Amino acid sequence: MDNRSRKDAHKRTLVARREHTRVLYKAILADLSLPAKVRYAVAKALYALPRKTAPTGIVNRCVHSGRAKAVYRKWKLSRISLRQKMTFGLLPGLIKASW
To answer: Does residue 12 contact residue 61 with C-beta atoms inside 8 Å?
Structure first.
């Protein structure tokens, strides 16, 4: 496991730890029946959460190479790794197209 994958795994654990709190704060903010002071206090609490716990920091990475670009979600492989595995027949049901 290379350093990029290790960092990504660490980010995912940080996000998972604070996910419940973040969803709860956002639900309270969306409820307009609550007083403005309460929503303001919750907004301050939401913005006080560490930035590293935001889910936008998570990047889908290839499990084979650690590449972050052109990753197919279904197989969690980059296009390059997917093509290599298809060529050798390691992915059942997938073949390299030729026309």
So the answer is: no
92 plus 46 within the same structural domain: no
Q: Taking 90 as the threshold, does the pLDDT of residue 20 lie above it?
A: yes
Whole-number average pLDDT of the chain: 89
- Residue 47 makes CB contacts below 8 A (sequence gap 6+) with none
Distance from C-alpha of 74 to C-alpha of 94, rounded to nearest angstrom: 13
Q: Residue 1 in contact with residue 47, Cβ under 8 Å?
A: no
Q: Tokens 């920091």: give the residue.
A: 57
The CA-to-CA distance between both ends of the chain, in Å, stands at 37
d(CA 28, CA 60): 29
Structure token pair of residue 68: 């972050």
Of 89, 65, 91, 88, the closest CA to residue 78 belongs to 65
- Structure tokens, 60: 């889908």
The predicted pLDDT at position 93 comes to: 85
Same domain flag for 9 and 38 = yes
